[in-house]
C-alpha cells in the first residue's frame, strides 16, 4: 500500500523518474524493521488454515531478521535506476521513532507450519517495483 514505507518509496521513485536533479526528502532511515514479502504471508495463511490440528495462539510471520530501513530505500532506488539524491532530514514518524529496532522470532511458525520466508528483500523489492509500473 502507498501508506507503507515501501509503497510510498515506490510512488516517490516513479514520480521522480530518471531526473538526475531529483531530491527525495525522507525522514530518518536508521531504524531496523523485519520486512516480509506478501507472497510469504499468503503462503503462511494458506498453511495455517489447512493445518490438520490446533496451532499455537500466536505465530509470528515475518522475514525473521532485522533489516536497516535505509537498505530497503536504497535497494528500491537502485532497482528504479534513480539518479537523484535521497536526503534524510532526520525527522520521521513519531511512532517509528519510538521503536528503533524490530525483529520477530519465526520459530513457532516454522515448527507448527513448516513455514519459512522464501523471498528475500531484493526479491520482494523487485516484485514491488514491477507491480507499481
Please provide a written account of the structure.
The chain has 133 residues and is mainly alpha-helical. The chain contains 6 helices and 4 strands, in the order αββαβαβααα.
Quick take:
This protein is mainly α and 133 residues long. The protein is 44% helix and 9% strand. It has helices at 5-16, 38-49, 69-80, 94-97, 107-113, 121-131; strands at 23-26, 32-33, 67-68, 85-88.
Question: Mind sketching the topology for me?
Answer:
Elements: H1 5-16, E1 23-26, E2 32-33, H2 38-49, E3 67-68, H3 69-80, E4 85-88, H4 94-97, H5 107-113, H6 121-131
Parallel strand pairs: 1-4
Antiparallel strand pairs: 2-3
Helix pairs in contact: 1-3, 3-6
Features:
6 helices, Rossmann fold, 133 residues, mainly alpha, 4 strands, two-stranded antiparallel sheet, two-stranded parallel ribbon
**Radius of gyration, rounded?**
17 Å
Amino- and carboxy-terminal Cα gap:
14 Å
Can you tell me the number of structural domains?
Answer: 1
**Based on helices, strands and strand pairing, what is the structural class?**
mainly alpha
Largest sheet: 2 strands, parallel
Based on Cα principal axes, name the global outline: elongated
CATH superfamily: NAD(P)-binding Rossmann-like Domain
Number of continuous helical runs? 6
CATH class descriptor name: Alpha Beta
Query: Which residues sit in consecutive blocks of at least 5 with pLDDT less than 50?
Result: none
| CATH fold-level topology | Rossmann fold
Which strand order spans the largest sheet, edge to edge or round the barrel? 1-4
Any guess at the CATH architecture?
A: 3-Layer(aba) Sandwich
Q: What is the helix/strand order? A: HEEHEHEHHH
Number of distinct beta strands: 4
The percentage of residues in β strands lies in 5-15%
Helix content: 40-55%
Mean model confidence by pLDDT: 94
